Amino acid sequence: MISADTLLIAFTLVTAINMVRYLTALRSLIFIMREAHPLLYQQVDGRGFFHTNGNMSKQVRLFHYLKNRDYQHHHEPVFISKCGKVRDLFMLSAGLLGLTLLMAFIA
User: Fold this and answer.
1) What is stated as this protein's family in its record (predicted)?
2) Distance between CA 58 and CA 18 in Å, rounded?
């Protein structure tokens, strides 16, 4: 039988890997956004997005843009596919993080 500690370590490792994948995809989305959608790039503070003094309300703007799937009306297919990938990775990472935290408190 698998111990709870082994499961917790496995969930933590998988969650960490998916968080890195999400942040990497988000960074590449912001890089692509500079050319594909300059207005949105300015609205989400693309240059200062990952800095500690970044504006949280502007970062939430990107979250709502992806959550509402506003990117589907864009004309560039690379931008659309990257937005879809970031959205899917965010949902996966958030679910795994919740499951890992639940496992940590149960075990």
Assistant:
1) Belongs to the universal stress protein B family.
2) 24
Any idea what DSSP says for residue 72? G
Residue 44 domain boundaries = 4-106
Tokens of 26: 């988000």
CA distances from 66 to 34, 47, 85, 107 (A): 16, 19, 10, 34
| Tokens 């931008």 sit on residue | 79
**How far apart (Å, rounded) are the C-alpha atoms in residues 61 and 106?**
34
Dump pLDDT digits (tens) for 35-90: 998 988 888 887 888 877 777 888 888 889 999 998 998 899 999 999 999 999 99
pTM value is 0.86
Total domains in the chain come to: 1
Give the pLDDT score at 29. Answer: 93
- The CA distance from 21 to 90, in Å, is 9
